[in-house]
Design a protein that fits this description.
heterodimer, A: 6-stranded mixed sheet, B: mainly beta, 7-stranded mixed sheet
Chain lengths: 115, 113
């Protein structure tokens, strides 16, 4: 069974600064996918970024990037030039692919961006 | 492009009343569909998922049931609501079971009084 752990329940950052959210996971699968989702106060879940485990290159989407350390089973999210609109709950998730149709979510990190 | 709809957006129901939440996906065919529940300030709990019409897998035995009468329609139901059924219900779809990248609807906030 997969597990996803987010060890930081809450974090805060000043506007325009950089913040890194931590995520570790455990899986016995060789082929899997990792995701970060954002849930703002509206509670709409939004896919932020995805990483395919067999790709060594870290994924990047505008101000969002990941640090994927496969051997350490670590998948952290870096947000650069933080904006007030980045205030949200962030969930890390893992999928083992294949016939397992489920995502395993972490418990989330509440990020507050302060002006 | 694909879109996912949920309704109603909010619902207040008395204990013991029935429930029907609907989710529909547009712009795709044969998606995997999912129902999640999220308690306030908590993570997501997978309730049901479906890989095809009439095919429902239950993750948590409880007071709820799900049905998929059409390819792009997923319904969450209850015959008698409990106080503990209150929460935020999210529907999601996935185009590719290999990757299982999921896209979520806007959610339904259910309050059982």
């Amino acid at each position: 069974a997969q597990t996803v752990t987010q060890s930081q329940p809450e974090m805060s950052v000043q506007e325009a600064e950089t913040v890194t959210l931590s995520c570790t996971y455990d899986t016995s699968e060789s082929n899997y996918y990792l995701f970060w989702y954002k849930q703002p106060p509206s509670r709409q879940m939004i896919l932020v970024i995805r990483q395919e485990a067999y790709k060594q290159q870290n994924a990047t989407e505008n101000r969002f990037s990941v640090n994927f350390q496969k051997a350490a089973k670590s998948f952290s999210l870096k947000i650069s030039d933080s904006q007030l609109g980045d205030t949200a709950m962030y969930f890390c998730a893992a999928s083992s692919g294949g016939s397992n149709y489920k995502l395993t979510f972490g418990k989330g990190t509440l990020l507050t961006v302060n002006p | 492009s694909q879109t996912i709809h949920q309704w109603p957006a909010t619902l207040v129901q008395p204990v013991g009343s029935p429930l029907s939440l609907e989710c529909t996906v547009e712009g795709t065919s044969n998606p995997n569909l999912y129902w999640y529940r999220q308690a306030a300030g908590r993570g997501l709990q997978l309730l049901f998922y479906s890989v095809g019409i009439g095919q429902i897998s239950s993750e948590v035995p409880q007071n709820l049931s799900a049905s998929r009468p059409q390819d792009r329609q997923f319904i969450l139901s209850s015959k008698k609501l409990l106080l503990s059924d209150s929460g935020f219900y999210l529907c999601a779809w996935s185009p590719d079971p290999r990757e299982n990248e999921q896209f979520f609807g806007p959610g339904t906030r259910l309050t059982v009084l």
